[in-house]
Amino acid sequence: MPLPVLLLLPTPPAQAIPKCHFPLNSKFVSQNPKHPNSLYFHSSRSIVLLVSDAIKPSLRTITTEASLSPPKMVKAIRVHELGGHEVLKWDDVEIGEPKDGEVRVRNKAVGVNFIDVYFRKGVYKAPSLPFTPGMEAVGVVTAVGPGLTGRKVGDLVAYAGQPMGSYAEEQILPADKVVPVPASVDPVIGAAILLKGMTAHFLVRRCFKVEPGHTVLVHAAAGGVGSLLCQWANALGATVIGLVSNKEKAAQAKEDGCHHVIIYSEEDFVVRVNEVTSGNGVDVVYDSVGKDTFEGSLACLKLRGYMVSFGQASGTPDPVPLSALAAKSLFLTRPTLFQYVVTRDELLEAAGEVFTNVASGVLKVRLNHTYPLSEAAKAHADLESRKTSGSIVLIP
């Protein structure tokens, strides 16, 4: 549909004029000798300017009518209001060109993580409404910003973390936030593991450094992060105790390296951990459940044990008085991945270790669920109702 545009152009000599007003003798405007009543406006889009009668001695009114090429639109999941999985809507969004230091990426696979649920519900605050959720994807670079080096069109790259917005067919990303994906790693596997893998990396390698002889307790041991935690801690020489909700997940946790598996719906996990450790407790608890398990997790720790609370699937834990930690001189931390990959070097190191361990077989990705990107709401519903295990990936 032709779009009418009104421009006021001063006659020569040119004067200082506001933005979007062009002198007739500027490089943007020329006259067509075959059609004296027409002018041409030179831009990235071809526009013919039709001259009307002068309305002032110093100005001419020029009306343009042109078929402007429409902006590029892509499909994306959008959140217009906070709430349940039903607030995830399949919308059209405009995507522009990458600016300095940016790349545009066409996503091939998008990872689903519980942090996406937190933002959708408002547990974590999104920058604005509406927003596109998602913090993990693998895709192909389709455009690079001016002067950018080190990344080129056609590169297979991954990202995990900020900025949010991976639930989209294409997105613009800071070039320093994407990492190269080795040829040995399938894009879908990369999207299934990068954020979860880097989370497991900082938990077992930096937050509390797991070593041979340690005993660790992992909540949601059959979940996306939990599965990787069990595998990695086992490979580092620790004794791994996993908590799961049913027998099927117990079998998976065993396969993932758990030496002991506790089905918390059938027995008191605090009592069982006490039995398994002969009353000594564990060196570290990795708790992603939150409110429902927090106090029990503290009770499972040995003297000077580490309570690592890195999620709150059941809700925010109640406040803890310092006296609760003093009883056994416990350490308590509530870390997030993004504080451990602040620099480019930290990001590349973490991603590199994850991909290396995938290639070597130390980490096996349990990709048990894939959904079309348009069905993200169903993926969230299944994740929250604990119908899923392992990783979930959306396919654009």
Automatic annotation (TrEMBL):
SMART domains noted in UniProt: PKS_ER
Keyword set includes Nucleotide-binding: no
GO cellular component: cytosol
Every Enoyl reductase (ER) domain range: 83-394
Domain of life where this protein originates: Eukaryota
Family matches, as Pfam families: ADH_N, ADH_zinc_N
Keyword annotations of the record: NADP, Oxidoreductase
GO MF annotation terms: mRNA 3'-UTR AU-rich region binding; NADPH binding; quinone reductase (NADPH) activity
Protein name: Probable quinone oxidoreductase
